[in-house]
Amino acid sequence: MIAKIGKGSNLIGALSYNQLKVDKGQGSVLFTNNLPEPNNTSNYIAQLYKHFEPYLLLNNKTEKVVRHISLNPNPNNKLTDETLNEIAKQYMNSMDYENQPYIVYKHSDIEREHIHIVTVCTDLEGKKIDDKYDHLKSMKTCREIEKKFNLTFVVNQTNMESKQIQFTPVDYTKHNLKTQIASVIRYLPKYYKYDSLTSYNALLSLFNIRAEKVEASYNGQTKHGLVYFAINEKGEKVSNPFKASLFGKNAGYISLEKHFKKSKEILKGASNKSSLNQIIEITLNTTNSQKEFKEELLNQGINVVIFQNRDNRIYGVTFIDHSSKSVYKGSDLSKELSANILKQKWSSTEDYPRSILIPSQQTKTNEADELHPMFDYLYSETTDFNNNEFLSLFNLLNNNQEIDYEELSFEKRIKRRRKPL
Hints:
Layout: E1 2-8, H1 11-23, E2 27-33, H2 44-57, E3 66-72, H3 81-94, E4 102-107, E5 114-120, H4 134-148, E6 163-167, H5 177-191, H6 197-204, E7 209-218, E8 221-230, E9 242-243, H7 253-268, H8 273-286, H9 290-299, E10 302-308, E11 314-321, E12 326-329, H10 330-333, H11 339-346, E13 379-383, H12 387-391, H13 405-418
Antiparallel strand pairs: 1-3, 2-4, 3-5, 4-5, 6-13, 7-8, 8-9, 10-11, 11-12
Helix pairs in contact: 1-8, 3-4
């Protein structure tokens, strides 16, 4: 069994999210603890909130007071509602929430049935329930429940005894900038799935890199290529362009087009898509701001790239799940995660720190530097590849004497710049 603990500040959002599943016939209330019994009245959410309220009023120091927990048994385990009730009670008791108000829902909107629990982490004395080691405690509790109820052991293969590698954004002030960029570009297509240049750039932005398309005319035909730039912490271009051919064929436009096509098919039917959507929607409904939303998802290994224009209007969102190494547009996961829905949710609460503009993917002559999404943090990845494979170098020389369309594009732009006024 896998348990996921979501932490937020929006209690009404968490309750409404689950009630909506019930109203749609995609879920049901299993039981409540120190809360009103489930009923079909229109003000049931208000009744629940009224009983939660005393636990909230006595502690105004804890920001993320809401706990939205999902318990996910192995799909092979066909469990009755009675067994699910016992599992939920044992889990909450082991996590020191036995005296807290909480409500347990069963969701059946995806292939596997699973449990959602909504509660708060402050008691009637105003004390916060210690959550310093709650993830370790949760893992231990899940193993105990699996043993007691003879459940199939579930493990995330990505996290099994795999080598941990620390990545940092490229540092444009160092002389080995090309080597830094090369190490990132070589890694990403081998392990991450992304189906467009926009998704690729969202992923590259974590490392202070941007890829842009260039065009060149050759024998009457328009050919496409790619160039790479380093960008600073503000998202501004801070390096000369590096031709894709410097980093091997896999970094070029033709190879990426093939990668996009292959990834599109994989992402469309990926088994993790439903669970990822579930995690994101829960987080969206338990947080009150864009900043809090991003921070909570980052704690769960998911990056969010928000696309905004200069007027701070959101016109796109991309999610990067490092567990499955998948990159999704919000609208590909759910209509509820589209740019318009997110814009409506945050329009009245956001001050839009660090407004970001995604430039056109096409490099143009004399274009002004524009901004690109950035993240200024370090993160670690776990993967199952061996170190020698990761450290092996591509041949940076083009030995096949193929036409270099990036070079042709550069030459054309240089010639235009040299024309007399």
